[in-house]
Each structure stands twice: as structure tokens, then as C-alpha cells.
Amino acid sequence: MLKIAFHPEYIHPVREGHRFPMEKYELIPLQLLHEGVVRKENFFEPALCSFETACLAHDSVYVRDIFDLTLNAKMIRRIGFPLTKSLVDRERYLVDGTIQCALYAQKYNISFNIAGGTHHAGYDFGEGFCLLNDQAVAARYLLNQQLANRILIIDLDVHQGNGTAHIFRDDERVFTYSIHGDKNFPFIKEQSDLDIPVADGLEDDVYLQLLGDSLPLIFEKVKPDFVFYQAGVDILATDKLGKLKLSPEACRMRDEFVFTLCMTNKIPVQVSMGGGYSMHIKDIVNAHCQTFKIAVDLYNF
């Protein structure tokens, strides 16, 4: 059964007036249900992750400041959101959602978190609307529980997963792979195990060739037993922040390629949705829902 993490608090910051496209987190499940792609029983509500769990990938002082709402003003500005209890709870829910999804993926081959992909949160910092790094915490959880030995994190959001790279810079058990806009945020990059920076205006053929030439070699080299996939749709030409020129078809082919590699190598994969900032919300929702549809078709759910 396909399992999908969703909690009503994923959209809570919208009700507090934050300027961020949180609507997609409400609309994606509604669209999937409306189209009959999934059923209500596919969804589950995560719990609040504990302090100890968050510290699996983050500095304990930083996590304590988040939980106690005592982050300094400079760090709050770097994150980009006013620090509130509801925002912290949202991050804690999405972290637990990704952990639970990782466990479901080991049972059902693939799972999704409607939110997540908070890849700008590093070991001791938040950035770019990310406080806690859901896939990094989940990766450490699997490793610490001896549920995985070698993890590959595939980050295909248009922005580099700098926080993920920062957390795992000295951890040989986790291989970080990122294709991202060279001149896009974050402007000071961390070093992933493999970074593929691309120029503004990149189009379908070159992007797909870069992915096709590099990712299979990584599977052969790393031999992961678990994959985390950050499936941001801000690579689309319609995206206000992405600066690339990719079509929805290229985005579909990207997801299909990643999932097929995981299936061929018999590796479970957890998917977090990442970024998407197109002018029209329908473009964001349709692109994210397409990722789910591909998984349902390929994995025969």
C-alpha cells in the first residue's frame, strides 16, 4: 500500500499570514483524492518528533533554541519565517512524517511526505524557510537503528541541498547528490559528494542527459540500500525562483527515471516534495501530483 504523510499543521503557517506557497500542501492531497489516484486510507498523520530525534542530525543547542523559541534574531532572519510554536510544531510533524515514510518504504518500496524536503537546514543552522532537515534526520534514524547501512540522498530541487551536504560532510555512510542552479540560492554552497551545478535557462534535453549520465553511475558506485529523493518542482520554466526552462514533461521523465533506477536496483525510496513557486498554484500542484501518479503506475499500487 502506498503510504503518504500528511498533517493539517503542514498548512498552518498560511493561517498566520506567512508569505509562502503553503497552499500546495492542502491542495495536493485534495487533487490526488479527486482524481482517484489515492484513497483516504493511503494517508497517515505523523506525530511530533522528539528533541532527541531532531538531534540525530542537528546540534543539540540549535534544536533546544528551536523548541524553546529562543533562536536569535539573526538566525530567524536567515530562516525567513517568524519563529512561532505552530511553525516549530509543523517542522516536527514533517520530520516524523519522513521517518515514518522511510519505514513504510522499506515495507512497500516507496512512500511520500506531502511536505518535507527541508534541505537548507544544516547541522547548526536554519535557512531558506527550513528549520529541521527531515530527510537528514530520517537518514540518521535508519542508520542508528541499523535499518540501513548505505544511504543515497538524491536532491533534484533547483536549489542546492546545502544543509544536507553540511550535515553529512564527514559521514561516509550517506552520499549526497545534487543537481541545482549554479547562480541560484543558496549563494554560498556547501560541498555535496556530487554537485552538478547548471546554468540559468537550462532546457529539457541537457538536464535529462546530465541526470542520465551521472545517476546510474552513482547507484553502481555507492550501492545504497536506501534512497531519499527530494523531488522539488521548482525546475519548471513557470517557476518564479527557479531560472531554468524545463517542461512538465521533463519533470515527469526525471521522476520516472529516479523511480525506475530504485526499482531496478530493488532499493526502497522515500520522497519529500521540496520546492515549487510557479505563478499559478495549479502548475505547482499538477507537477507534484504527477510525481505521485508516476509512482502509482510504476509500483502498481
Verbal overview:
The chain has an 8-stranded parallel β-sheet, sandwiched between helices. The longest helix is centred in the N-terminal third of the chain and has 24 residues, at 85-108. The chain contains 11 helices and 8 strands. It has 301 residues and is α/β, with parallel strands linked by helices. The protein has one domain (3-298): Arginase, Chain A. Mean pLDDT is 95; it is low at 14-19. Helices cover 43% and strands 12% of the residues.
In a few lines, what is going on in this structure?
Helix content is 43%, strand content 12%. The protein is built from 11 helices and 8 strands.
Give me the secondary-structure topology.
Elements: E1 3-5, H1 12-15, H2 23-34, E2 43-44, H3 51-54, H4 60-67, H5 73-79, H6 85-108, E3 110-113, H7 134-144, E4 151-155, H8 162-167, E5 174-181, E6 194-198, H9 204-222, E7 226-230, H10 248-264, E8 269-272, H11 281-298
Parallel strand pairs: 1-2, 1-3, 3-8, 4-5, 4-7, 5-6, 7-8
Helix pairs in contact: 2-11, 6-7, 9-10, 10-11
